[in-house]
Amino acid sequence: MAQITLGSTGITTDRNAFGALPIQRVNMETAVKILRKAYAGGMTFFDTARMYSDSEEKIGQAFAGMREKIFIATKTHSNTPEKFWKDLETSLSLLKTDYIDIYQFHWPSVCYKPGDGSGMYECMLEAKKQGKIRHIGLTNHKLGLAHECIDSGLYETLQYPLSYLSSEKEIELVGKCKKTDMGFIAMKALSGGLITDSAAAYAFMTQYDNALPIWGIQRETELDEFLSYKDNPPQLTGERRALIEKDKQELTGEFCRGCGYCMPCPAEIEINNCARMSLLIRRSPSENWLTPKAQEMMKKVEGCLACGKCASQCPYGLDTPELLKKNYADYKKILAGEAEVK
Ligand code: SF4
Ligand code: SF4
């Protein structure tokens, strides 16, 4: 099962797809090198977004002149027709292309439909008519909206978080998409960095022959890991199942996935790291999170204005200010040697 077809779009691609959010964090030269290596290694599907700063520009630089060899999915967070067209033209220009394979509404608060008064779905139809986009998709983190999107029959792909930490109800979406011949693009297969065993994450994904995981890749070493799975796909062995069960027990309930949708914070708190520091520091080498810079980052939690902006924007319904407080209290204990890390 090395290839995946995204429902009625007919897009068939290697099951290792590239999530281009993290390449924002590296310079142009490194990003271009990684993207080209990904293509050389068999990756043909690249997912980005207008919101991911210069990610589209990096993809444009990497693949100029070979557009027909790859698939590009990007997203607009616009909520008015005017912003929609501005975003689309900007994306086309930065990506150095005249069409986008899948154009997605990026985490909209409603499932846009024709005649709903917003004019947004009509923009998609018009863009398709003009040949600027080939397929219409939607991304979301909310279960209810995801169901509405599938039930509407208006969208060709749904992008939704899927990992071995997903609930049964979330996993049901994959089967529902299959039944309705809709493509399923799986984001956050590593749950924002909390899943540290990529082989286990990959093995979990192989159970779903219609879900295309877009692996968020920033470093060449990460890319190499995923490319190595092409010839030697990790199996869902008893050992891996045990690890998944252990992680599920450890990472249940109210935990921050690090998505960053609640940012920017007016007090400049790096919420996507600070609100899950207790997990990060215990699930990855702790010294990375104990540097003077990391301590400074955590200290900013003291400046929280309790404005509630973050909680109101968290797609997981988390009480973010409370989570920040808890994580900071734990962090201070770690610094004082009163709490354990690995
Ligand atoms: S409640 Fe605190 S952490 Fe959240 S956005 Fe406001 S200042 Fe930032
Ligand atoms: S608090 Fe919520 S929105 Fe903010 S980074 Fe964590 S999961 Fe994402």
UniProtKB/TrEMBL annotation:
Entries under SUPFAM superfamilies matching the protein: 4Fe-4S ferredoxins, NAD(P)-linked oxidoreductase
Q: What is its EC number?
A: 1.1.1.-
What is the uppermost EC class here?
Answer: oxidoreductase
At the top level, the lineage of the source is Bacteria
CDD domains associated with the record? AKR_unchar
Q: Does the keyword Iron apply?
A: yes
List keywords of the entry alphabetically: Iron, Iron-sulfur, Metal-binding, Oxidoreductase
User: Which residues are in the 4Fe-4S ferredoxin-type domain?
Assistant: 295-326
According to the UniProt entry, its GO molecular function terms are: iron-sulfur cluster binding; metal ion binding; oxidoreductase activity
Q: What InterPro entries does the database record attribute to this sequence?
A: 4Fe4S_Fe-S-bd, 4Fe4S_Fe_S_CS, AKR, AKR2_Oxidoreductase, NAD(P)_OxRdtase_dom_sf, NADP_OxRdtase_dom
The entry's protein name is: General stress protein 69
Q: Which gene encodes it?
A: yhdN_3
